[in-house]
Every structure is written in structure tokens, then in C-alpha cells.
Amino acid sequence: MPEAPEPPGDTFAERLDWLFRTSRDPAGRPYSVRYVATELTRRGCRISHTHLSNLRQGRAPDPRRSVVDAIAGFFGRPPAFFAEQAGSQDEGDLVHALADPHIKQVAMRLADARLSPEGHAAVVAMIEQVQRLEAAARRRRDDQRHDLERSAAGD
User: Fold this and answer.
1) Residue 71 · residue 16 · CB < 8 Å
2) What is the residue-wise DSSP string for 104-116?
3) Residue 90: what pLDDT?
4) Do the Cβ atoms of 123 and 115 come closer than 8 Å?
5) Which residue, 39, 63, 70, 116, is the most exposed by fewest CB within 10 angstroms?
6) Is 49 within 8 Å of 6 (Cβ atoms)?
7) Per the record, which residues fall in region Disordered (predicted)?
8) CB neighbours (10 Å) of residue 70?
9) In terms of residue numbers, what domain contains 6?
């Protein structure tokens, strides 16, 4: 089973750095600061990769609320992630996750199955494979949509 990452720190910079170190793109690679800044800007939150890097390294003051919200949203975290005490983060994440009936169903099946550590690792590997397949399908759909938009604009 993969080793659990250390908990995030207490400062905004430590938590942001933790997100970059522990989050993976659909291909399984860490996100680059440049990619995240570009994606945040595309979503309406203008931020340069230099400023985002300075935030990550603690060389810039904590950002305004709209930037915190955008960064948290990109990484799939609630904005409170940047304000919570490190010890309560895992519990908050679990409560938030278990509110989703699909996640609760999977968790209950895992609890009932009483799998070995190897069995749990196999389930995690399957979930990661499904994530990669769905990400590839999304990319294909997005590419097709962009192609249709370009051809419609050329008409």
C-alpha cells in the first residue's frame, strides 16, 4: 500500500506546498506551478506562476480570499483546508468524503470485505487506473469539442 504523506503544515505556504507535493495530474505526475497558474487564470483567477511560486515558498503574503478559494477548488479541497489545524484535516476530509453516497458505498464495501493490505493496494491501483481512463476520455471529448468549435468558427 502506498505510504501516507506527512500531514500538511500550519502556514498557508506549507499547506500549498503539501498540495503540490501530494496531488497528481490525471497522468500521475505532480502539477507544475506554471500549469496550476495557467489553469487558475483560465478559470477566472488571474495569477502568475511567479506569484504562485512565491506563495508556495512563503515569500509572498497570504493571498486574498478569492485566490485561496480558487487554489482550494483546483486541488479539490474546501477553502477551509488552508485555515484548519493540521490534526483536524484528515477528519474533516473524511467527513466531507463520506457525505458522498458513492464514496460511502465503496468505503462500506471495503470495511465489509476485510481485505489484506495487498488487497487494499489492489483496490487503490484499480481506482487510479479508472482515474487515468476517465481523464483520457475527458481529454478526447474536450479535443473533439474544440475541433467542432474550430470548424464551426471557420464556417
Assistant:
1) yes
2) HHHHHHHHHHT--
3) 57
4) yes
5) 116
6) no
7) 136-155
8) 21
9) 1-85
Q: Distance between CA 70 and CA 74 in Å, rounded?
A: 6
Q: Which residue has the cell 473524511?
A: 94
The number of distinct structural domains making up the chain is: 2
Residue 5 sits in the same domain as residue 44: yes
Residue 46 has which C-alpha cell?
A: 488571474
Query: How do residues 21-73 score in pLDDT, each as one tens digit?
Result: 999 988 889 999 999 999 999 999 999 999 999 999 999 998 999 999 999 99
Per the CB < 8 A criterion, the answer to whether 47 and 40 are in contact is yes
Residue 52, C-beta contacts closer than 8 angstroms, at least 6 positions apart = 33, 36, 37, 40
SS3 of 30, please?
strand
